[in-house]
Structures are given as structure tokens and as C-alpha cells.
Amino acid sequence: MEGPAATSFLALDAGNSSVKAAVWDGAWGATARFPSDDAPAEAWTARLEELAGDAEAAGIASVVPALTPVLAEAVAAVMGAVPTVVSADLPLPFRLAYATPRTLGTDRLAAAVGAHALATGRPVVALDAGSAITTEVVTAEPAYLGGAILPGPDLLRRSLTRDTRQLPDVPWPDAVAPVGDSTVTAIQAGLSALVLDGVAGLLRRTTDALGGDALVVATGGWGPWLAERLPEVDRVEPHLVHDGIRRLALAAR
């Protein structure tokens, strides 16, 4: 599904809190992160101009509907070409077995495409760990089945403080210990165990459902932290979503 080659490609992954941009030129190189704010297209043009460089094609995966046309206008101004906006209507490298494709986040779809490209015929699970933690499941057939969505570490940590009267906001622990000897370390023990054991259990259940031979690929800001502590994770790919955007856009040309 690689499609026609492009010497350089700009991929934009627009999430609820930030837009993660990256340029591919045979490999992923220059990156930038911008706030997902209500800046006009002219401001986005200025933000992207230096990063885009000589990129010949671009793609956008966005879960912020109001931001999508603004980014598309800015990319067109910078590059003189209309970017591909990821959707379930694009040519896909697998059968879409998701019951509600119109509600499927395009970042999730791009992660599934990027992971499938790495699986070389095996079932694959993409684990994207950011504000939320998501899994995307593609069978060996291949078919995209869906996955799971759960709160990420920071969401869990903030919710504990927000919805209780006496528990303090605490930093995420560097070391994982099951017993805390203070209120702060007790919260840290509980949060780290909940995230690690919860994600590990989810991955085991998911790979078992796929016959036990699935490749697990982690991405997102918390991906390396989870991969370092969970043997269920096979590899980390920081640009998994960006690569899915690139593959979808090039196949649609």
C-alpha cells in the first residue's frame, strides 16, 4: 500500500491538546508540537512554513473537526497542494470490520495502518498511550476489528485529585512500588499499578483473542514508559500515527 513515492511528506496528527507534526524524507526527521488552539489559518501557515520545507505531499489526521479545515488551508498555503484528510473513506490496506466507522477516530485508523505495515502478515495490536490509551487490532486476514479506549496516566492522576476532597495532586512516580509509606507514595503506588497491570491485562486478553501470535507496537508519549516495564510490548514506534497518515495519503493519490 506504499503508493507512489514522495521525496518528502508532512504529516499532521491533530489531537485534543496538541498538533504533532513530522516530516518524512526517507525516514522521519524534523518534528514539532503545537497547541490545538483556535489560531487562524495565517498563524498555522507561519507555524508550519519552516517545518514543511520542500515537502511535496501532506496528510492530516484530526479528531478536532473545527481545526481540520484550518490546518488544510494552512498546508495548502505553505505547499501549494491540497493535503489528504484521513477518513474511513480512503483506500485501506485491510477490511474495515468496525461497526461504526463514522465514529472511528482518524488517529486510531492511522495507527492501525502504520502497525499493519510493520506486521508482515501477523496479527498486530497498536498501543497508543497519550492522554487516552487506545489499542487498535488488525488480524492476519487482514481486518481491522476495533480495540479499546481507556484513560491515560495523567487523566487518571488528575481525576483522583479533582473528584476527592483531601487527596493531593502528585507527580507520576519514576520507580514503581506496590506499597507507599505516605499519602503521596500510596497514590503513586496505586496509579502505577492500575496503569501497568491494566494495560498488561488488556494486551494479554487481546493477543489471546488473536491466537497468541500478535505483534504489539507502542507509540505516544507514554509508549516508551510502558514498553520499558511491560514484556507484552514488542517494539516502540514514535511515528506510528504519522506513518499511517503518510501511507494512507500516498495510496489515495
Task: Give a topology summary.
Blueprint: E1 9-14, E2 18-24, E3 28-35, H1 41-52, E4 57-62, H2 68-79, E5 84-85, E6 95-96, H3 106-119, E7 124-129, E8 132-138, E9 143-151, H4 153-162, H5 183-209, E10 215-219, H6 223-229, E11 235-236, H7 240-251
Parallel strand pairs: 1-4, 4-5, 6-9, 7-10, 10-11
Antiparallel strand pairs: 1-2, 2-3, 7-8, 8-9
Helix pairs in contact: 1-2, 3-7
What are the key terms here?
single chain, 253 residues, alpha/beta, Nucleotidyltransferase, domain 5, 2 domains, 7 helices
The gist of it:
The protein is an alpha/beta fold and 253 residues long. It contains seven helices and eleven strands. Helix 3 crosses helix 7.
Q: What report would you give on this structure?
A:
The protein folds into 2 domains: 77 residues, Nucleotidyltransferase, domain 5 (2-Layer Sandwich); 149 residues, 2-Layer Sandwich (Nucleotidyltransferase, domain 5), CATH 3.30.420. The relative contact order is 0.17. The strands form 2 sheets. Strands 6-9-8-7-10-11 form a 6-stranded mixed β-sheet, with helices on both faces. It has a 5-stranded mixed β-sheet with strand order 3-2-1-4-5, sandwiched between helices. The radius of gyration is 19 Å and the shape is globular. It contains 7 helices and 11 strands. It is 37% helix and 24% strand. The N and C termini lie close together (11 Å). It is α/β, with parallel strands linked by helices and 253 residues long. Helix 3 packs across helix 7.
